[in-house]
Structures are given as structure tokens and as C-alpha cells.
Amino acid sequence: MRSQGGYECVSARPSIGAFDPGHTGSRCEPDPLTFQTAKVNAYTRPVRACAPRAAQGFTLLEMLIVLAIIGLLVALVGPRLLERLDTSKVTTTETQIRMLRTSLDTLRLDIGRYPTTEEGLALLTNPPTDPDLRAHWRGPYLEDALPNDAWGHPFNYAYSAAGNPPFSLYSYGPEGKASSDGSKTGIGILPQR
Question: String of b and e for 12-32 (b: at least 16 CB within 10 Å)?
């Protein structure tokens, strides 16, 4: 065996030339002393450069083990992330309701009353039709358009004239409607029963 360009090369053919008695050529193995590209010598035929074993890639078994580990991680962590997503949507909706309540309180200070159920939350962004109330309206009371809840459903508003506050402002959550069995009532300032 002889080092040729960073690899040990072995061949079934006898060597060519008097100065290369040990050269045997076609099977290549890495030479630990030098890692250079294969060179052509005047006394030998061109030698094929071989890649070291470490650069050959992964086996199917190694890939399956990695995929199994990733699958286990997704199975363990995935439900917790989805639970956090639902919790964050509830928190976002509660925050929006507090913001809308503050806007309704500011509106009441300006015009002297809360919007009726018919006027709804639109009174926060659109002036009232009554000219007396329009003179006191200092809106819009929201920076942007009227928001929907975190699930994309409009908020429910109803004026009751009783209670503290005298209105209900809530979201039904992901369903967007009341449950048929009455088990889920909503998120926010719920109607008094």
C-alpha cells in the first residue's frame, strides 16, 4: 500500500514503473497522516479520490430513530402549546372587553348615558343620530374600528338599565354562540339573570 494524495490506494494490477513497487491502486481508504486531493504521478495511473467514511451520510435506521424522537417531542409538547393558545385567546378577549368598557364609560361621561341595545357598540365609532347627543359626542372612542373577539366573532352588547354596570358585554368564545345546554355562558360582563 502506498499513500496517494491523502488516501491509501490498493489495486489488483501490478504497479507501473520501477520506482513504485508497492503500488496496487483501485480501492481507496483514508490516510490518517494527510488529507489532500488525489494526484497523478508520472509512474502510476490516475487514482480515484475516495470520500472518507464520515462524509457518506446517515443510514435509514439513524433517520428513523431521529424521526421517532421528533414525533415523541411533538406528542408531548404539542398539546401544551395548543392549551396555551386557547388561554391566550381568552386573555385577549378579556382585555378587549376591559378596553371596550372603558370606552363605554367615557362615552357615558360625554353624552350622559350608555348606548341602547339598538345603538350598540357602533356608537363608539359613529356619532348618534339625535342632534342633542351629537353635540356632546366627542368620539370616536376607539382608535381603530370596532374589534371582534379573539376568534373573529362580534362582541355581544345589551343595555339593561339596571345593575353595575347597566349593560352586558361578552363573547361566547370559540363557538360564537351560546351552548344549547347552558353550560358555557361566555367571557366578559355577562347578562344578569
Answer: eeebeeeebeebbbeebeebe
Average pLDDT of the residues in 137-148: 92
Listed in sequence order, the residues at least 6 apart from 114 whose beta carbon sits closer than 8 Å to its beta carbon are 104, 107, 108, 159, 165, 166, 167
pLDDT digits (tens, 9 = 90+) for 18-76: 444 555 544 555 555 554 544 555 555 555 555 555 567 889 999 999 999 999 988 88
Q: Does 127 have pLDDT greater than 50?
A: yes
CATH code reported for the domain at 89-189: 3.30.700.10
Query: What are the boundaries of each domain within the chain?
Result: 1-57, 89-189
